[in-house]
């Protein structure tokens, strides 16, 4: 809970931070600018009791001065293929956990693991493995990006493995995920696309329009059928045209749609990001990473599904053809860029990184904002918006040392 206990001070010396979920000592993080759904609160505080945020501090709570910092909710990533050198599509359980841990250190406390195009047997087997991690609470679910996408807009997906979105095959993937399928990206103009959207909506799975060559009219039809997300808006879809506006106009104008944006300075020009915020509004934008193995790991050669990727200067491109192949982004960098380069208010960046994706995933009762009763998932940022601490469910993933 955020309050205004008094004048904002300066931390002195070094403060050792306890581990609330381990020793159960309640913790009061005091003096920071706390970013709430209603806006920033100067000299506020957040009370952590066990694994949750509490409305009031118990008498035995330890008070830690975090003045000169921001406290924001843990980030929620809807669309992430890996990191730390590990792939969510092909890595072992241990490797997937390495990738998850990499993104947690950068503030992503809730993550949906995304797969890339593969054959159906491989993807259903992969869904089983990732479902186990969802059942353990390591990930928030699974996003299938491909194989039901357009060969005209395939991006970094293997064309020979693409297929039309047959509802029976879409259902096979959903069933293989054992209740943990959160999103499926479709080119809804393909045969079976609209019926597949309806099937996903009936099963409580997000139908996302992406890697699509759809017209404006076809996109409107898909939204009316139940599609609610634009997979990395602007990328892997026809450009906005004044006679043929294509999917971008339809996705931006419809209040039922949340638009994903990759805010890494490579995938989008700042004017495109501004256009999306202007037309969709801050409540309908979700920043994603679309990260691949190299996120948090470095340049070099990687595999994205069956395709080889070269990462140079932090930009991932297919070795053959040169298409952009996901990103090396982490959400802390997306946050910093949003505020310092794009000029967004801090509360708009928080909405795009936490509240909006949490609501879309049906998790807003637990994560996405710093409110009493929710999981103690939070990120401590300094005045330059660099990560200085990350807490997940009351335990420090990155324990700050202040002073």
From TrEMBL:
<feature type="domain" description="Amidohydrolase-related">
    <location>
        <begin position="70"/>
        <end position="397"/>
    </location>
</feature>
<dbReference type="GO" id="GO:0046872">
    <property type="term" value="F:metal ion binding"/>
</dbReference>
<dbReference type="InterPro" id="IPR011059">
    <property type="entry name" value="Metal-dep_hydrolase_composite"/>
</dbReference>
<keyword id="KW-0119">Carbohydrate metabolism</keyword>
<feature type="binding site">
    <location>
        <position position="243"/>
    </location>
    <ligand>
        <name>substrate</name>
    </ligand>
</feature>
<keyword id="KW-0378">Hydrolase</keyword>
<dbReference type="InterPro" id="IPR003764">
    <property type="entry name" value="GlcNAc_6-P_deAcase"/>
</dbReference>
<dbReference type="InterPro" id="IPR006680">
    <property type="entry name" value="Amidohydro-rel"/>
</dbReference>
<feature type="binding site">
    <location>
        <position position="211"/>
    </location>
    <ligand>
        <name>Zn(2+)</name>
    </ligand>
</feature>
<feature type="binding site">
    <location>
        <position position="156"/>
    </location>
    <ligand>
        <name>substrate</name>
    </ligand>
</feature>
<feature type="binding site">
    <location>
        <position position="145"/>
    </location>
    <ligand>
        <name>Zn(2+)</name>
    </ligand>
</feature>
<protein>
    <recommendedName>
        <fullName>N-acetylglucosamine-6-phosphate deacetylase</fullName>
        <ecNumber>3.5.1.25</ecNumber>
    </recommendedName>
</protein>
<feature type="binding site">
    <location>
        <position position="232"/>
    </location>
    <ligand>
        <name>Zn(2+)</name>
    </ligand>
</feature>
<dbReference type="Pfam" id="PF01979">
    <property type="entry name" value="Amidohydro_1"/>
</dbReference>
<comment type="pathway">
    <text>Amino-sugar metabolism; N-acetylneuraminate degradation; D-fructose 6-phosphate from N-acetylneuraminate: step 4/5.</text>
</comment>
<dbReference type="InterPro" id="IPR032466">
    <property type="entry name" value="Metal_Hydrolase"/>
</dbReference>
<feature type="binding site">
    <location>
        <position position="267"/>
    </location>
    <ligand>
        <name>substrate</name>
    </ligand>
</feature>
<feature type="binding site">
    <location>
        <begin position="235"/>
        <end position="236"/>
    </location>
    <ligand>
        <name>substrate</name>
    </ligand>
</feature>
<feature type="region of interest" description="Disordered">
    <location>
        <begin position="1"/>
        <end position="24"/>
    </location>
</feature>
<feature type="binding site">
    <location>
        <begin position="324"/>
        <end position="326"/>
    </location>
    <ligand>
        <name>substrate</name>
    </ligand>
</feature>
<keyword id="KW-0479">Metal-binding</keyword>
<comment type="similarity">
    <text>Belongs to the metallo-dependent hydrolases superfamily. NagA family.</text>
</comment>
<dbReference type="GO" id="GO:0008448">
    <property type="term" value="F:N-acetylglucosamine-6-phosphate deacetylase activity"/>
</dbReference>
<feature type="active site" description="Proton donor/acceptor">
    <location>
        <position position="290"/>
    </location>
</feature>
<dbReference type="GO" id="GO:0006046">
    <property type="term" value="P:N-acetylglucosamine catabolic process"/>
</dbReference>
<feature type="compositionally biased region" description="Low complexity">
    <location>
        <begin position="1"/>
        <end position="15"/>
    </location>
</feature>
């Amino acid at each position: 809970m955020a309050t205004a206990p008094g004048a904002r001070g300066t931390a002195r010396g070094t403060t050792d931070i306890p581990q609330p979920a381990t020793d159960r000592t309640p913790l009061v993080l005091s003096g920071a600018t706390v970013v709430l759904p209603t806006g920033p609160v100067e000299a506020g505080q957040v009370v952590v009791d066990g694994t949750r945020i509490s409305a009031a501090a118990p008498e035995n709570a330890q008070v830690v001065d975090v003045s000169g910092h921001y406290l924001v909710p843990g980030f929620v990533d809807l669309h992430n293929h890996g990191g730390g050198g590990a792939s969510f599509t092909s890595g072992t359980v241990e490797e997937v956990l390495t990738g998850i841990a990499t993104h947690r250190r950068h503030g992503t406390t809730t993550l949906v693991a995304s797969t890339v195009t593969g054959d159906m047997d491989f993807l259903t087997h992969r869904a089983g493995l990732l479902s186990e991690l969802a059942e353990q609470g390591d990930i928030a679910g699974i996003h299938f990006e491909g194989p039901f996408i357009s060969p005209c807009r395939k991006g970094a997906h293997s064309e020979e493995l693409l297929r039309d979105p047959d509802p029976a095959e879409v259902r096979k993937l959903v069933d293989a995920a054992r209740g943990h399928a959160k999103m499926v990206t479709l080119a809804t103009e393909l045969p079976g696309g609209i019926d597949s959207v309806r099937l996903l909506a009936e099963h409580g799975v997000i139908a996302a329009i992406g890697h699509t060559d759809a017209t404006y009219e076809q996109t409107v039809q898909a939204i009316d059928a139940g599609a609610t997300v634009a997979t990395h808006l602007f990328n892997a879809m026809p450009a906005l045209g004044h006679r043929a506006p294509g999917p971008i106009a339809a996705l931006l104008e419809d209040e039922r749609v949340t638009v994903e944006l990759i805010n890494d300075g490579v995938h989008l020009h700042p004017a495109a990001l501004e256009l999306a915020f202007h037309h969709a509004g801050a409540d309908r934008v979700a920043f994603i990473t679309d990260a691949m193995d190299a996120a948090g790991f470095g340049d070099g050669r990687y595999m994205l599904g069956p395709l080889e990727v070269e990462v140079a200067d932090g930009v991932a491109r297919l070795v053959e053809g040169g298409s952009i192949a996901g990103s090396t982004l982490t959400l802390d960098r997306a946050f910093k860029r949003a505020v310092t380069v794009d000029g967004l208010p801090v509360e708009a960046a928080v909405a795009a990184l936490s509240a909006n994706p949490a609501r879309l995933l049906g998790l807003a009762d637990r994560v996405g904002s710093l409110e009493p009763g929710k999981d103690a998932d939070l990120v401590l940022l300094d005045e330059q918006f660099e990560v200085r601490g990350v807490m997940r469910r009351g335990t420090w993933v990155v324990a700050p040392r202040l002073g």
